[in-house]
Amino acid sequence: MNCNERTAIALNLGIPDRVPIYSETVIQNQIYEILGEKNKAVPIRLIQEGLTGTLFKLAAPLINRIGWSNRQIEKFMSKKIEADIVLGYDCSLAGYSAIFNLKGNRQATDIWGKLYDLVADPDGSVDTPMYRQGLLTTPELWDAWPHPTPDRLYKMLYPILADLQKRYGERIYLLGSLSCAGLWEASSGGMGLTAFSVTLHRNPDFVRRMAKYYETIWLATIHATADAGMPALVYEDDLAYKSGPMVSPRVLDEIFGPSLRKITAEAHKRGLKIIIHCCGNVNKLLYLFVDWGFDGAQALEPTAGVDLAEVKKQVGKRMCIFGNLDISHVMSQGTREEVEAAVKSAIQAAAQDGGFIMGKTNSNYAVKVENTRWMIEYTHRYGAYPLNLA
After folding, report:
1. Going by C-beta distance under 8 Å and a sequence separation of 6 or more, which residues neighbour residue 44?
2. Which residues lie across from 43 on neighbouring strands?
3. Residue 10's pLDDT band (boundaries 50, 70, 90)?
4. Cα(176)–Cα(153) distance, rounded to whole angstroms?
5. Helices and strands per DSSP (H, E), number in the chain
6. What one-character DSSP code corresponds to residue 43?
7. Residue 308 contacts by C-beta under 8 Å, 6 or more apart in sequence?
8. Torsion of CA 298, 12, 172, 378, to 10 degrees
9. Cα dihedral sign for 24, 101, 181, 45?
């Protein structure tokens, strides 16, 4: 059984030959280590300090106009997938994140109206931009922002996703995605949580209008993913803190539920599986994930109080469970024995009747490549069906 067949069976809640393994890794130093290549990440001092920093700041408008920085992001997507294939993953997130415009050499905005700081990773290289605040703090500002049309977004995504699928799709099961565009995340992040909360209370119809716009963006993403030949996509939307949902599940469903149901229905109409990635304590949201129509749930953070066995008990007969190795210790500082124990525990909790895909909860700089190799090794050892955890 190949990686595409194995993953497809698990997503259909069946029992493949063994548990598939999913990668959401997007960390530069890990990618280049896996590929055995010199780290090609750009040192942040090069764009922020001295003469080169001054020149980069002056050139930022030209860089935006010619799309240089976003092309580097697109090229890195290929490296990420190549590394996943080398390491032995079965399925991989192909998330489109070339969505930024530079503001000088220290900040950037995304196409949704969020402001970010350009920050360094521990190696001193340019890291994923760090969200600072929303710029669209009023309905008037939101309306005035140059939001991309669904057609423009499709034209951005389709050629990149189609190229990735053509080059790698026979060797790994690819799940398309669009970064920072979840209905909740784009709406609340674009306004800023405080302004969004006030608007949600005083002007819920405007929030519904925002949701409707982002719905059209996700419909375009679905069509780009399907037309590219990819079999699935990941809808990314962090709806929870470690303590629980950021807002009442009732309100989430009332405001965003109608659009999410249309999004999942369109994905299914186009023959795609659609997975929700949601960090935090999602225990009170699991029933909504099913009701909204998602085929799987990913992250399910144990450090946020999410118990994989309980998730399997609640929704495992209706959606595929991804999980859920902890990145804060097991995958970053854990011993071989701790990784082995975590893999066995996850398989014991959620893999018994199929419908389970192994993976880390998230992508993080601290995760060690060695620990990831152990995760894959022990999933191969203990995840073959019929399961034998001895």
Report:
1. 118, 119, 120, 124, 125, 126, 127
2. 125
3. very high
4. 14
5. 15, 14
6. B
7. 300, 302, 321, 323, 324, 345, 346, 349, 350
8. 60
9. positive
Instruction: Write the burial class of residue 377 (CB in 10 Å: 0-12 exposed, 13-18 middle, 19+ buried).
Output: middle
The answer to whether the beta carbons of residues 174 and 94 sit under 8 Å apart is: yes
Distance CA 268, CA 250 (A): 25
Residue among 252, 138, 113 at smallest CA distance from 206: 138
Q: What is the pLDDT of residue 72?
A: 87
Query: pTM to 2 decimals?
Result: 0.96
Q: What six digits make up the tokens of 342?
A: 């975590």
pLDDT in tens, 193-204: 999 999 999 999
Among candidate residues 332, 296, 367, the one with its CA nearest the CA of residue 20: 296
Through-space distance between the first and last CA atoms of the chain, rounded to whole angstroms: 24
| Token output for 310 | 């309980």
Residue pair 34/89 in contact (Cβ under 8 Å)? The answer is no
Pick the range with the lowest mean pLDDT from 125-129, 338-342, 346-350.
Answer: 125-129
**C-alpha torsion angle, residues 53, 58, 62, 68 (rounded to 10):** 10
Walk me through the domains of the chain, giving residue ranges and CATH numbers: 3-382 (3.20.20.210)
Pairing of strands 296-299, 240-241: unpaired
What is the pLDDT of the chain when averaged over all its residues?
A: 96
